[in-house]
Amino acid sequence: MTTDATLSTHLQELRRGTVVVASLTVLQTPGYGYSLLETLSAAGFEVEANTLYPLLRRLESQGLLTSAWNTDEARPRKFYRTTPQGDAIATALRSEWTRLDKAVTDLDSRGDK
């Protein structure tokens, strides 16, 4: 029998990687951290700001994102965009996601026979 705590741990691990893929995909168009939170939430990716902002900094330090401050408005905001390397990683991760999804679906359908 699976406990709620065990399931929660495994769901957290699964979501951690999917938020990276989703963020790199969304930020192929420049966006602000807060708008990324809203976009991810609307798509079903529940992520806290205190999780997302360190992730954005880590992806930037890995060369997958670039950032710049927009000071045109009353309140300066930092916006992010994927680098060419970030675009390539996003494409590769989505491809791998599709492959893994098919593999799990194939395994699951074996049980139906």
Model description:
With 113 residues, this protein is of the alpha+beta class. It has one domain (14-102): Orthogonal Bundle (Arc Repressor Mutant, subunit A). It contains four helices and three strands. The protein has helices at 4-26, 33-42, 49-61, 84-110; strands spanning 31-32, 65-70, 77-82. A three-stranded antiparallel beta sheet has the order 1-3-2. The longest helix has 27 residues, at 84-110. The two termini are 24 Å apart. It holds the Pfam family PadR. Residues 26-88 form the Transcription regulator PadR N-terminal domain. It comes from Actinoplanes lutulentus. InterPro entries: Metal_resp_DNA-bind_regulator (IPR052509), Tscrpt_reg_PadR_N (IPR005149), WH-like_DNA-bd_sf (IPR036388), WH_DNA-bd_sf (IPR036390).
DSSP helix fraction: 55-70%
Shape, please?
globular
Q: In angstroms, what separates the terminal alpha carbons?
A: 24 Å
Strand adjacency order, main sheet: 1-3-2
Number of contiguous helices: 4
Task: Give the DSSP E fraction (strand runs of 2 or more residues).
Answer: 5-15%
- Average predicted confidence as pLDDT: 92
